[in-house]
Amino acid sequence: MASTSPSDDLRAQLDSLTTEAFRPELADIDRLPTLDLARLMNGEDAGVPAAVAAQLPRIAAAIDAVAERMARGGRLVYAGAGTAGRLGVLDASECPPTFNTTPGQVVGVIAGGPEAMVTSVEGAEDSPELAVRDLEGLALTADDSVVGVSASGRTPYAVGAVEYARARGALTVGLACNRGSALAAAAEHGIEVVVGPELLTGSTRLKAGTAQKLVLNMLSTITMVRLGKTYGNLMVDVRASNEKLRARSRRIVSLATGADEEEIEAALAATDGEVKHAILVLLAGVDGLSAARLLEESGGHLRAALAAAAR
Questions:
Q1: Sign of dihedral through CA atoms 60, 175, 215, 118?
Q2: What backbone phi and psi angles, to 5 degrees, belong to 217?
Q3: Which of 154, 159, 236, 247 has CA 20 to 30 A from 299's CA?
Q4: What CA–CA distances, in Å, run from 20 to 145, 163, 196, 207?
Q5: CA angle 308–239–89, rounded 5-degree value
Q6: How many CA atoms lie within 13 A of 71 on its CB side?
Q7: 3-state secondary structure of 82
Q8: Cα–Cα distances in angstroms (integers) from residue 232 to residues 99, 203, 215, 228, 252, in the given order
Q9: Do residues 59 and 49 make contact, with C-beta atoms less than 8 angstroms apart?
Q10: CA distance 35 to 39
Q11: Which has the closest alpha carbon to 82: 118, 51, 34?
């Protein structure tokens, strides 16, 4: 009996994946007028939210588990290769300005390191050992959560990251776009958003990438809501690091309190520009130091701090 080579085994694996399937009905799309091709692609994308919706109970369970650990001081870590890794790094990098997370609180690691954000690092995704090395530097604890992201659900880097994290006692989430994936099976919380074959065969930066972005948006955003980083739908922990964000800070305080510009400026000045603190100053009638104390005692939850101030 003829033996199979590793490349033959990999080809067989890819042939079995929905995300890699060839669609003969699209074989002539390069002949279509541009508007028809754009309509076709837009129609393909329209099905992604429904595929995400089918996984909402699993997504919600993962969010609650992550938030519980982050409330104890744990970190949220994304791990992936290629597009999946870049999406994780992107989501992590947006958390400090949006939610005022501390450095290292939400982290993205990508196969091949920072260079892989802008160029392909050959072979990096095939190494579970590389994932272990990248996570070893984070000294994971049982309060941390590691989310492996891979469209195929078989990427060795992502699977290796989840297996290592789980062995260290960390919470693990596996986000894939194929059913029965090794990544979801390796994780405590498996999320498989099946979006079907891509417009361009195997180009998982398309529907699969969109699905992953939507799920990562939920994981980080709703976790931060659960941690008290918002007040209603206002980003009250926004970090005012530039003029646009300083203007947004003033607007958020205005929307939350209805105060006039002079009152808002005085409250922000009394709280070193901290939006959440300024809102508490205005709504509860306390000074800046009292606002800081009330928020610390309430674990950073503005609603709880306002209730405490009213007692």
A1: positive
A2: -55, -45
A3: 247
A4: 29, 24, 9, 12
A5: 115
A6: 16
A7: helix
A8: 14, 38, 21, 10, 11
A9: no
A10: 6
A11: 118
Q: Reading across the β-sheet that carries 106-110, which strands appear in turn? A: 106-110, 76-80, 145-149, 171-176, 189-192
Alpha carbon separation from 178 to 17, 73, 204 (Å, rounded) = 7, 32, 11
The residues near 194 (Cβ < 8 Å, ≥ 6 apart) are 18, 51, 54, 177, 178, 179
Per-position pLDDT tens, the chain of length 311: 445 555 556 565 666 788 888 898 999 999 999 999 999 999 999 999 999 999 999 999 999 999 999 999 999 999 999 999 999 999 999 999 899 998 899 999 999 988 888 887 767 778 899 999 999 999 999 999 999 999 999 999 999 999 999 999 999 999 999 999 999 999 999 999 999 999 999 999 999 999 999 999 999 999 999 999 999 999 999 877 788 888 999 999 999 999 999 999 999 999 999 999 999 999 999 999 999 999 999 999 999 999 999 98
125 is catalytic: yes
Tracing tokens 């992604």 back to the chain, one arrives at 48
Indicate which residue of 44, 125, 163, 192 is catalytic. Answer: 125
Question: Strand 171-176 relative to strand 189-192: parallel, antiparallel, unpaired?
Answer: parallel
Task: Specify the pTM.
Answer: 0.91
Asked if 94 is an active-site residue, the reply is yes
- Residue 101 per-residue DSSP state: P
Return the amino acid letter for 218.
M
Q: Which two tokens stand for residue 250?
A: 């003033």
Of these residues, 20, 25, 44, 94, which one is catalytic? 94
Closest CA to 190 of 153, 219, 157: 153
Q: How far is 113 from 36, CA to CA, in rounded Å?
A: 39
> 107 has which bridge partners?
77
Question: Which has the closest alpha carbon to 224: 91, 70, 53?
Answer: 70
